[in-house]
Design a protein that fits this description.
about 280 residues, mainly alpha, about 0% strand, globular, MetI-like_sf, Molybdenum transport system permease, cell membrane
Length: about 280
């Protein structure tokens, strides 16, 4: 019993010391931290303060807003589906594939994260436009023209949003225990069956988190969309484009649209809160 008490006392003292260290808040760090918090939060509060609350329902349910919102939701969902079909195999290749130049491939995949979206739109236009490297053949052989169409919106959003899915799924694949896959292979399961019944379920939380982030990024895409798909009401005018247009003629409508996008962003972050906490633990 004496030895046990002797062991507990140093442990309790260490815990007290750790709490005291954490309780110290040097002023030189607190002040810029509060300034940074204000820098990020105050502009968002400005939207709430300047919002036309009295006319909010009429503006929110107007034909133009509903059309832009419906188009944004449909295009973002389709872009996310494209990213899932292409991004999950790509993430598996980066995490598990034994291919040369994998580091270079990973860098190329993450380029859209830092590339200005307008540049991405120009690149898509040069490749998939009517005179583009691939687009010219699509137009000549099949009569398919992708720029300035709703399909072009989906392509632009998928191009910008796919890295979010790939990074999330790749991280989940690297953290997954490979012994389960090895056991499935030992029992005679094929590679496709192992991936479908073992690997994919084990990384499903990462897939869901990546898909949600991908969807949110696609919903807020502006630069690549306006460059590659243009701005045609009811056809390519998504919510961010509608905000840009309304800001020039009707600032109150722009605030209402911005609040809708802000609400979607908050919902996404709250939905993924537990994942961020587990990742930081």
């Amino acid at each position: 019993m004496t030895d046990l008490r002797a062991d507990i006392r140093p442990a309790s003292k260490r815990a007290v010391r750790r709490r005291s260290v954490r309780a110290r808040r040097p002023l030189v760090l607190v002040v810029p931290a509060l300034a940074g918090l204000a820098f990020l939060v105050v502009p968002l509060l400005g939207l709430l303060v300047r919002a036309p609350w009295t006319t909010m329902p009429d503006r929110l349910f107007s034909g133009e807003v509903l059309t832009a919102l419906r188009l944004s939701l449909v295009c973002a969902t389709l872009a996310t589906a494209v990213c899932l079909v292409l991004g999950i195999p790509l993430a598996w290749l980066l995490a598990r594939g034994d291919v040369p130049g994998r580091s270079l491939l990973r860098a190329l995949v993450t380029v859209p994260l830092v590339l200005p979206p307008v540049v991405g739109g120009v690149a898509l236009l040069l490749v998939l436009g009517r005179r583009g490297l691939i687009g010219q053949y699509l137009y000549e052989w099949f009569g398919v023209s992708l720029p300035f169409t709703t399909t072009g919106v989906v392509i632009a959003e998928a191009f910008v949003a796919m890295p979010f899915l790939v990074i999330s799924v790749e991280g989940a694949l690297r953290a997954a225990d490979p012994r389960f896959e090895e056991a499935a292979a030992t029992l005679g399961a094929s590679r496709w069956l192992t991936f479908r019944r073992v690997t994919l379920p084990s990384v499903l939380p990462g897939v869901i988190a990546g898909a949600v982030l991908c969807w949110a990024r696609a919903l807020g895409e502006f630069g690549a969309t306006i460059t590659f798909a243009g701005n045609f009401p009811g056809k390519t005018t998504t919510m961010p484009l509608a905000v840009y247009l309304a800001l020039e003629t009707d600032p109150d409508a722009a605030i209402v649209l911005s609040l809708v996008l802000l609400a979607v962003s908050v919902v996404v972050l709250v939905a993924l809160r537990e994942r961020w906490i587990r990742g930081a633990a």
